[in-house]
Protein 1
Amino acid sequence: MSATAAAAAPRRRKGGGKVNTLPMVAPSVTLLLAFSIIPLIATVYFSLIRYNLTNPAIHGFAGYKNYLYLFKDPALYSALYTSVQMVVEVLVITIGAAAILASLFEQRFPGRSIARILMISPFFVMPTVSALIWKNLLMHPVNGLIAWITRSLGFGVIDFFADWPVTSVVLIASWQWLPFAFLILLTALQSLDEETREAADLDGAGPLAVFFFVELPHMGRAIAVVTMMETIFLLSIFAEIYVTTSGGPGDATTNLTFLIYKRALLAFNVGGASAAGVIAIILANILASIMVRIVGKRLDV
Amino acid sequence: MSLRAKSHPVAGTIAWLASLLMFFPIFWTVLASFKTELGAIATPPELIFTPTLENYTEILSRADYLSFAMNSVVVSFGSTVLALLIAVPAAYAMAFYPTKRTRSTLLWMLSTKMLPSVGVLVPIYLFARNVGLLDTRTGLILMYMLMNLPIVVWMLFTFFKEMPKAIIEACLIDGASQWQTITMILLPLVLPGIASTALLNVILSWNEAFWSLNLTAHDAAPLTAFIASFSAPQGLFWAKLSAASTMAIAPILVFGWFSQRQLVRGLTFGAVK
């Protein structure tokens, strides 16, 4: 299969010269180029000027001032810390649970495909819905289901969003992203060949040994991919915070994304928000370059 | 004998318990949508109750609900069609006529997807405001098309790559034109791939909640924004929230069940198959 493909490749490439592919590729490339470069330059430009949407008296070149204010502002560090905390906690929860669940779903049991559908369903629930049903129906301190359960068991009531705001957002995000991690790790695990498993069986490896020494290493690449993808998405958690805590109490659940939103669309401080935007872009770029390297290795063009 | 040849009761029990736990919030929401407002906030929770359709009729009779729902439909399907029109030729060209630059072009497309939306929020917002695209369906369609274009190109590319090259070459040798080859041979073959790409794109656009919350106010606001309006602190309308949520997630949930296999390919850019 790969041998014929390799043999066909140079021939196709030679013949490919006759077909002009530029008009087919150009629209996508032009659009994406415009969409990624122009706003990027604009963000950098805005970050260097004094610009407030509500106050035209504030204008002119600011140079590095916006950055200076930003770096002096404790809110930035608190937002960065919250971003990292949310990402790391959700990653640990989702990948840990997904690896175990993927291993369990590799076993045969009755109704496996139905169970899998139930398991992945939360991924398709829109973020505003998942945040609000968790906040109200489940985690509400008076009428919520969890409050009723803990009260009935005599543990008292947890006021999730007042006492554990970050944990609450992490919990909701984990519920949304566990299916994603699970689905990808399960797909990766299904490519583990039967012979390796049988060899492990014959050697007398128990289920735990199979999980740690056979399955987990096999999922390594997929875990790297999930980590990168989830990190990109989780750094941008927005709707969940928007509808549950609005970044509070205080600044407790304000991550970098929410900080920029507050600066830009609530305080109309374009300059300051753009400076923070540049920092978000730099952070994401570092992650993106790692991701591109991982994916690039597998890409056969 | 292989371990996996027979049913594994312990693994099965844990897996089923975990699945039920994960699905429970959705089940609980659907249940609450058939309760009265008083029943929905009752403690201990109502398990046996007379189901009512009151919440659904009330939500549906609100004049603006249908406008929110229509916005969701128009925006997610509109952006999907637009993205496919632009991406299919690109993916076709890159899969069948790769050049020296194809690999770097694809990887570059992937890297644009990594740009955090919030980093470009300010210029996009100001641009949309200045050209009158703020709070319009067109604005949101364009936004989602651009946002998902890299995923669509990538996913189509991986499908096209799997097509047997020999068939295409045979057609061309037999004197069929490029166009005939594409429409009569290739298209039917890749239709399932295009369909799952479209499905994923609809799902992602339907659930998108950063641009929809920031670029729309009322006229073009989709269901994500409608549901967000329930976060207002006045009054607890849990039953109505549940009914609205159930209607907002039901179609996409079904779409998701059908596309679960292809989803992995789309969301990992072919890195995990």
Protein 2
Amino acid sequence: MPAPYFDYAALAPEIILTVAIVVVLVADLLFEEREKYQTSTLAGLGCLAALVPVLYLAGNGADRTMFGGAYVVDNYALVMKALFLVAGYITVLLSTNYIEEGDYYQGEYYTLLLTALLGMTVMASARDLVTIFVALETLSIPTYLLAGWRKHDARSNESSLKYYLMGVLSSAVMLYGMSIVYGLAGDTRLVEIARYVATGAGGHLFDVAIFFTLVGFAFKVSAVPFHFWAPDSYEGAPTPVTAFLSVASKTGGFVALLSLVYVGFFGRSDAWQPILWVLAAASMTVGNLIALRQTNLVRMLAYSSIAQGGFMLVPFAVANQGDGSARPGAFSATVVYLLIYAVMNLGAFAVLIAVARKTRSADIDSYAGLFNYAPALAVTMSLFLFSLAGIPPLGGWYAKLVVFKSVLDAGTKQAVVLGVLAAVNSVIALFYYARVAGMMWFRPAPADGGSTARVPVALGAAIALPSALIVAIGVYPNLFARLGELATKGL
Amino acid sequence: MDWFDSWALSLAAFIPVVGAAVVLAIPKAKELLIKQVALLTTAVTLLVGVIILFRFDYDAAAKLQFSVNKSWIEVISSRYHMGLDGISLPLLILTMGITLLCVVYSWDHFPEPHNPKAFLALILLLETGMIGTFLAEDLILFFIFFELVLLPMYFMIGVWGGDNREYASIKFFLFTLFGSALMLLSFLAIFFKSDPHTFDIVTLSQQHSAGMVHGTQLLIFGGLFLGFAIKVPMFPFHTWLPDAHTEAPTVGSVILAAVLLKLGTYGFIRIALPILPEAARSWAPYIGLLSVIGIIYGALGCLAQTDMKRLIAFSSVAHMGFVMLGISTLTSFGINAAIFGMVAHGLITGMLFFLAGSVHERFHTRELNRLGGLLLQAPKMGWILGFCAMASLGLPGLAGFWGEFPAVLSSYQPAEGLNVALFRGFMVTAAIGTVLAAGYLLWMLQRVAMGKIPAEWEDAHIHDVHRPEWLAWTPMLLLILGLGVFPGAIFHVTDGAVQGISKAFGDGG
């Protein structure tokens, strides 16, 4: 066996992240206590530095394949890597003041954050069961710790423990499925698995394997009925970590799901399409209905992100119509949705953190009269909430549109039923998003309010960047639509 | 002026949003400047409209003029395609005029909690949405503009509205969103069923849904119907309207009545009928039926109201019933009447809402039981109210007549293939509706304007019409009279374009 071929240019983002991890760790040892906030700057720089080779590779254009097809750097991988790195950078911006002022361990926090990011960037390129699993654990394990970062708070402990137990359980289930896949197909590479699938062999045992693998990922992306850990974990974790979990970590799960379904299992749509149909329908409906009843904004966003996950699963459920015509549309629909969702959800959490600095609360009631004493925060929060609801001219409408489009492209009865269900759900969702907006705009401010909330620079940037993006995407969606199209090319 | 022809529509649609951005950039304390910028913006927008009026080729009113067709979202082959024909033109000018007058009217009576900055920015944003909807020639572009009006109106009702504003605003939002979500699904279905796939309204109208299975057409039309019918609103989807109208601030009600409701009827004329003519024929009897139910139900609803504004809101349901009845005949006569009815209703009901707002401002109530004797206390306002009530009940010589009467008449002879007896039944019912309309409007007039001054207000000093009100109302009153005397001014513009649509239903004009 010849020595494996290393394409260092293709691996540059991961290498830079690894260097950044080491630098932050060492810096944490060397810095005095009061200088430790600078680890946040280092971590942010690390994310941005890793973005440079991603842009270079994207400009370069050629697909690069390593390790016998187990590791692929194509447009799709690069788009997702860029998403992870930007999301990571925004998370650093969100964390800076929160972690510093909260007297938390700073160096370790950013080390773990970067490690999780490393797992995600690897995930974007992983086209092999083992690589996918390793990437998944690399991104998951640090987040178990991060969720429990507020260690004197029982809720945070609960959050961490729940998340950990569920994560381990899902990994076990998933590994079991993967082991059967390997046993049948005789290979862990997705391309080879696809070849095996094309032969039509495997029978019901392969159905079982697909089922377990998908259920494992359903936990990761918190699809109903495997969602129940998410709200508690989200509420207990430090808010920047929640933002990271609901965006980056969830996207990590979706990226793996995309690779597995569209590359590996695609030919066996009879096995996975019904499962994903049910997951999509249940996630949208249950997520939305429970979100209606929430009184805490973080919990509401947790359920809303479950419902949003349902929308992302919709294209999966209609991806294979036999002739392959619906496949690229469905694939790019999920990719575009992930991109836009990341922008708006991060933005919403950024405002939430900014408001909580003043009100010390995430209760929806505490948002009363925000428009009167902090109009900028109220306006940007409204932008993100209505974007999540899919109201034009904010970016979210385009995400919803591509999902509907994939449904009608398939055109089958099941697809259209799912489409109508999604349409009805988008109306239900508006109700709880608008309720928060109504609280901010229509209610009088509390008596002690009145002083404007001061927003630190880092946090301000984390609000301004997504706000500008979400309006830009809404007015000129071609921006992100092109990325979705590019990502689909490698399919 | 070539550059103007290619930029006119983009200017018309986007000057307001630029104005809104400028308004937002001005500090809150400089109130006068904010008002001036808003006024200037709406005036410039109207100026663009006036220049369009002069440069419009009236002999080719059926053709799209001032077209722009640029790439927008290539990935889904949706284009930035705008155009203006005889159907859009009256509605475009109506929108521009009403918005300007609303800014004038608001000048020194901004509703609580004041905040002119946010209020005017929302009005300007609203104007972009409304104008864009009347100009869009691409389904996705249409959808964006159609939805763009939701957010500003939601905030306008919710922040500046009456006591029950939160309920009314969210109800308005949810109803409309529900319709438009299904409408969007229908748009996408049209895209995938068309050959070649396109969102272009012009191309789709020429295809006449050729090659589409009838059952699919009916379903797609159903989605469009829900989207537009909720906006109109048609019975039984009208329940959001009385709440929204009653709770909205005066200017919000005026814009809602004068323009927003027209987005729905316009959608039928621009999209549903031309793109899916076969399905339209199958749906027409049901649309006609719901229209006449709306006419009678709206009228009876009016008779049961004790709140002046709510009464006018219900009268909108009835009037939009006439408009929809005209459309459901699928004849050029009926559709022309419908467009006239849209403009007339916009002016007349807009005026009535202005009046209701001014009455409320003076008496702090709109309870019909507590009002009375307006003619004695504020004679000018009383006479204006009388004039508008007469216009609204369809008195010949005023604008309302030309929307109502031809619409009723057109159902005597609906398009080929429609059940003539059924439509004549609709005609008789609608005619009864006009009698009821006279009933509730005169009843309202009697209780508000005539009789003695109630003891409660005997000593109150009631200011008659003041300057911003004169400025805002005079153009509308003149138009109500002018269009009543010269209805040809609108029929002449719309007829050519309407015949292009009714041709598909075997109507020679």
